[in-house]
Amino acid sequence: MSESDPHNIDQHQPGAKLDANKNRLGLVFGGFANALLGVGKVGTYGANKYSDHGWREVAVERYTDALLRHQMALLSGETIDESGLRHVDQVAWNALAIAELSD
């Protein structure tokens, strides 16, 4: 697929930007700002408890188990875990760790 301007502006005209069909990450960061702040709290808590980026050395299966534990707590009506963080943010963090570590 060739690159194109989403507004059909010729690439040699002022204002052209060949970004049609490219990943629009602003939709994620802008659309999920509160959720990402919660995930950031989980990451910060983990880095302070263990080490920065140490999570990368943990087997992905352990994050699956952690995700499921937090999900089960949510399903049972518990919203905050023993660290004072929201279970839903823990679920999201673990899902991101699984996605990052999976091939």
In a nutshell, what does this entry contain?
The protein is mainly alpha-helical and 103 residues long. The chain has four helices and no strands. The protein has a domain at 32-101.
Comma- or semicolon-separated keywords:
103 residues, mainly alpha, 52% helix
Helix-strand category: mainly alpha
Question: Average pLDDT across residues?
Answer: 94
Basic shape? elongated
The first-to-last residue Cα distance is 26 Å
Q: Can you put this structure into words, describing what you see?
A:
This protein is mostly helical. The protein has a domain at 32-101. 52% of the residues lie in helices and 0% in strands. The chain has helices at 26-31, 33-49, 60-75, 87-101. The longest helix is centred in the middle third of the chain and has 17 residues, at 33-49. The protein is elongated, with a radius of gyration of 19 Å. The model has no long low-confidence stretch (mean pLDDT 94).
Strands, helices and their partners?
Layout: H1 26-31, H2 33-49, H3 60-75, H4 87-101
